[in-house]
Design goal:
The chain is of the alpha/beta class. It folds into 2 domains: 195 residues, 3-Layer(aba) Sandwich (Rossmann fold); 82 residues, Formyl transferase, C-terminal domain (Methionyl-tRNA Fmet Formyltransferase, Chain A, domain 2, Roll), CATH 3.10.25.10. The chain is built from 7 helices and 14 strands. The strands form 3 sheets. It has a 7-stranded mixed sheet with strand order 3-2-1-4-5-7-8. Helix 1 packs parallel to helix 2 and helix 5 runs antiparallel to helix 7. The longest helix has 24 residues. It is elongated and about 70 Å long.
């Protein structure tokens, strides 16, 4: 039997762990995780708790990196699988492993190598998201491909739902991968370097709304930065607000002077905001400290930094 060290983090890592436990998969030698940052919910702690509840050996990332070889030998690890993982695993570990290090990545490689690929796909307005299972490599996310799966999405899909879609694909591929390894039947495909693109990490301040952008781009920012992240934000008078849900109107108006950020009209308490191109209706927004901003007490208001 193969005994994998599962390096798991984020909601996707927890979902895969729950799925492996539920389906009684025995290929778990140990699990490693670490606390998350820049998110509203720390899934690293939940992964550790789930391991303890199910008598699964757990290793913290700090403990593992102190002595990789010792921990690999201690738990009789035959291979490493990384899901939702943000740290580099030394490739020299492959010398001590019958099975090479395998990585699950949130994109259809070679597009979107690097950080935050699902959020980036939403920010770009893509109509498809997907995952790749690949061997770890010296260059970031450039290894040979083992499995790929994709799903079509539309503008109604926000990052929270997208993560759940990706998690389901991860669970399916985790089981498929285990059977491929067990049967020694892995077939790989080289990535086409000519098609490679990259995405960079994002900080909370990257999610400030620029009302001088198009309504479509602002909607995509709102969709791509919601829960489990801290949301797209803007200012309203002296308050910072988080915008969680919006829609682009199916028409635009030719303003003689296009004062972006201003409210054009109110419908059922929801303001429609003038953008550089298009009109955006805010459906759900809260103050930084919590609490719905609606109904607004004034109509003549402008979102964004004062000028």
């Amino acid at each position: 039997m193969n005994t994998f060290l599962w390096c798991l983090n984020t909601e996707k890592g927890l979902d895969v762990l729950n799925f492996l436990i539920k389906t009684n998969i025995k290929d778990i030698g140990a699990v490693c995780s670490y606390p998350e940052w820049n998110v509203q919910k720390n899934f690293g702690d939940l992964i550790e708790k789930k391991c303890h509840e199910n008598d699964i050996p757990y290793i913290s990332w700090n403990e593992l990196k102190k002595d990789f070889k010792k921990n690999i030998n201690k738990y009789h690890i035959s291979g490493i699988v990384a899901i939702g993982w943000q740290y580099l695993l030394p490739l020299e570990l492959n010398r001590n492993l019958p099975d090479k290090i395998i990585v699950f990545h949130d994109s259809l490689l070679p597009r979107y190598r690097g950080f935050c690929p699902t959020a980036t796909a939403i920010l770009k307005g893509d109509g498809q998201i997907g995952i790749s299972v690949l061997y770890a490599s010296e260059e970031i996310d450039a290894g040979d491909l083992i499995l790929q799966k994709s799903v079509e999405i539309n503008d109604s899909v926000y990052i929270e739902e997208a993560i759940k879609i990706i998690s389901k694909l991860y669970c399916d591929c985790a089981v498929e991968l285990i059977y491929l390894v067990r049967s020694n039947n892995i077939k790989t495909k080289k990535q086409d370097e000519r098609l490679a693109t990259y995405c960079i990490w994002r900080n909370p301040e990257d999610n400030e709304i620029d009302w001088n952008s198009s309504a479509r781009d602002i909607l995509n920012l709102i969709r791509g930065s919601g829960y489990p992240y801290f949301g797209a934000y803007t200012s309203l008078q002296n308050d910072l607000i988080r915008v969680w849900e919006a829609t682009v109107l199916d028409y635009d108006i030719n303003f003689e002077i296009r004062d972006t950020g201003k409210i054009w009209k109110m419908e059922n308490g929801n303001p429609t905001i003038i953008c550089k191109n298009g009109l955006l209706k805010i459906l759900r927004a809260t103050y930084e400290g919590g609490g719905d901003i609606f109904p607004l007490k004034k109509f003549r208001l402008r979102f964004g930094r004062s000028r």
